[in-house]
Amino acid sequence: MERLSRHGESQVTTLVKPFHISLPALSRHIRVLESARLVRRRRHGRLHLIQAQTAAVREAQKWIETYIAGWETSFDVLDQLLKKEQRKVQKQ
Q: How far is CA 73 from CA 25, 62, 79, in A?
């Protein structure tokens, strides 16, 4: 998503280059992003061109932001609980 946001529309073969995954594996990832409407695929002959859907990304960001406060609180509580358990173990 970051590469697509920076470079605009890109070929699938260009997107796979910096990663150590196969083209079919990347295609599966892209299909998931397509089903979430985060990217759009356009075919030009044999080329498959992928483009980030910025409006959908912003919508996803807003949704995530609504849950961040709760997640941070949960992680803080978990951190305190783990520290408490660690002190108990060290006392034994």
A: 35, 18, 10
Q: Which domains does the chain have, with CATH numbers?
A: 2-52 (1.10.10.10)
Cα 25 to Cα 18, 20, 50, distances in angstroms: 14, 10, 15
Closest C-alpha to 1, from 60, 63, 68: 60
Q: pLDDT digits over 3-21, tens only?
A: 888 888 999 888 888 888 9
Question: CA-based Rg of the chain, rounded to a whole angstrom?
Answer: 20
**Tokens representing 60?**
């996803």
Q: Which long-range contacts (CB under 8 A, 24 or more apart) does 67-70 make?
A: none
pLDDT in tens, 48-72: 899 999 888 888 888 899 888 888 8
Q: Which residues contact 19 (CB under 8 A, 6 or more apart)?
A: 26
- Is pTM beyond 0.90? Reply is no
